[in-house]
Amino acid sequence: MRGVWTTERVRAAEERLMLRTRPGALMQRAAFGVSVQAARMLSEHAGRVAASRVVLLVGGGNNGGDALWAGAYLRRRGVRVTAVLLAPDRTHEEGLAALRRAGGHIVSVEAGPEVLAEADLVVDGIVGLSARGGLRAEAAELADVVDAPVLAVDLPSGTDPDTGQVHGAAVRADVTVTFGAHKPVHVLNPARCGHVRFVDIGLAGELGEPDLRVVEAADAAAVWPIPAAHDDKYTQGVTGVAAGSSAYAGAAVLTTGAAVRSTAGMVRFAGSAAEAVRARWPEVIATGTVTDVGRVQSWVVGPGLGTGTDGRETVRAVLSAGVPVCVDADAVNLLAGTPELLDARDPDTPLVLTPHAREFERLVGAEPGDDRVAAARAAARRFSAVVLLKGHNTVVADPDGRVLVTVPRGSWLATAGSGDVLSGMIGALLAAGTPPWTAAGVGAYVHAEAAALAARGAPISSSEVLDAIPDAVRSVRAMSPAGERV
Ligand SMILES: NC(=O)C1=CN([C@@H]2O[C@H](COP(=O)(O)OP(=O)(O)OC[C@H]3O[C@@H](n4cnc5c(N)ncnc54)[C@H](OP(=O)(O)O)[C@@H]3O)[C@@H](O)[C@H]2O)[C@@H](O)CC1
Ligand SMILES: [K+]
């Protein structure tokens, strides 16, 4: 898993590191990294480095200082560098002096549109970790006329470093160079950041435990249940699915199918859509009610269940079964309407709640808001459950405060029934004994991978996501040396 640290933690780490380094050394390391990436982009986009034109947008802080120093380094490679000063009275002095010495041009904001029109590359050094709110008017006007590729220093200006949210105007970068650590914006708003490149400034030893973690292919490969010589149909776990209704048989078929496709374990189904489930998935043992179903090692409850009395009693029965439960869709709504249902749960029974934003609002009484990580964390603590908050970024919070996020790869999952597929996958992982936080995070990762594989650039349905689960598992195992070893 890749670690992500908030602004506060990065600043504290930088302060500790600065006590042991010569003044200005960190900025120069950072800026050198920016200049290397800039040269790479110039080669790619302009076909040359020397004699190409770079425009630096320079705000009134150290982010602007980084841009100015990077400009000075680029001058050594024969690049024509022009700095546009957005806060002339607060410009980083050493950086400005370094660019001047190196032969860079300095212009005021008024000249910005003219120099930008000639640029082969624009370096965004408007604002970094101190960013608050969207771009201010002058910066916004300049950002608006940029046509050339953009390299953002630390983060695209105008995005919130800790939530990735944009309120107002913001830069859209092709490449973002981050120093010493990945920050939340880099994983929560990849659309604004473009490709994120890491520059090591020696911070690693000062950072401590990450605030967030990003799920990677290796994590999925390491935990995905793959049958070995000693396994039989029971050792990978039996998933129970309580989903669907006469009105929503499709949800039952999708949820059950996702559990079938995810592992070699067995799947049992309970509900009024048993006939439809049996017809589509002959390997499933399907019965009418939860009480008839026999032993399972996990339950998935909720998709298409309805919010009537039958649904409520199903949720109650499942929560009192003493096995891990993934609570999705209508089961989340039922918990929101009847919180006492949770009393049926033994406090030691692991629970994964998988709300989307509207379900989350019903459950918690407030929208997730800008800080979705904080919202998911608070809900996890409140319900003593893993909370998987769906959205463009899926956020998975454990009651102990740990948070996983998945980085979106397109919006392919914005299709009816995709949540049903996810809950079936998580249920199968829970049945195999995967700890709930990991099951939810890794389930979401492979779900997104399945969608990306199925889509290949065109819109898809949830059935196609479901069919692509085995390919997604193969793909994460192939991407990861850990997967090869399993
Ligand atoms: N610490 C280190 O060791 C290292 C730090 N490094 C670098 O320092 C950067 C942090 O620098 P920083 O703290 O000087 O502030 P920075 O982000 O440049 O902001 C400047 C000023 O902009 C303003 N402003 C706020 N919001 C705004 C908006 N939306 N639109 C426009 N303007 C806005 C606000 O001023 P205000 O006008 O509100 O008084 C703010 O004070 C960090 O991201 C990294 O690049 C690297 O060199 C590595 C070593
Ligand atoms: K920036």
Low-confidence stretches: none
**Radius of gyration, Cα only, in angstroms?**
26 Å
Straight-line N-to-C gap = 18 Å
Average predicted local confidence, pLDDT: 95
Shape: elongated
Beta-strand content: 15-25%
CATH topology of the largest domain: UDP-N-acetylmuramoyl-L-alanine:D-glutamate ligase
CATH homologous superfamily caption of the largest domain: Ribokinase
Number of strands: 18
Query: Which strands sit side by side, in order, in the main sheet?
Result: 1-9-18-17-16-15-14-13-10-11-12
Helix content: 40-55%
The largest sheet is:
11 strands, mixed
Bound molecules: ligand NPW, potassium ion
CATH class of the largest domain: Alpha Beta
Class by helix and strand content?
A: alpha/beta
CATH architecture of the largest domain: 3-Layer(aba) Sandwich
What is the tally of helical segments? Answer: 21
How many domains make up the coordinates? Answer: 2
Structural description of this entry:
- This protein is α/β, with parallel strands linked by helices.
- The relative contact order is 0.10.
- It contains 21 helices and 18 strands.
- The chain has helices at 7-18, 25-46, 62-75, 93-101, 112-117, 137-145, 184-188, 190-193, 204-207, 217-223, 249-262, 274-280, 309-319, 329-337, 357-364, 372-383, 418-431, 436-455, 462-467, 469-479, 481-485; strands at 2-4, 53-58, 80-85, 105-108, 121-125, 150-153, 175-179, 195-199, 212-214, 238-242, 266-270, 285-287, 298-301, 325-328, 351-354, 386-389, 394-397, 403-406.
- The model has no long low-confidence stretch (mean pLDDT 95).
- It has two domains: 2-212, YjeF N-terminal domain (Rossmann fold), CATH 3.40.50; 217-485, Ribokinase (UDP-N-acetylmuramoyl-L-alanine:D-glutamate ligase), CATH 3.40.1190.
- The strands form two sheets. Strands 1-9-18-17-16-15-14-13-10-11-12 form an eleven-stranded mixed sheet, sandwiched between helices.
- Helices cover 43% and strands 16% of the residues.
- Potassium ion is lined by residues 63, 124-128, 152-155, 157.
- Residues 14, 18, 26-27, 30, 59-64, 66, 126-136, 139, 153-154, 158, 179, 201 line the site of ligand NPW.
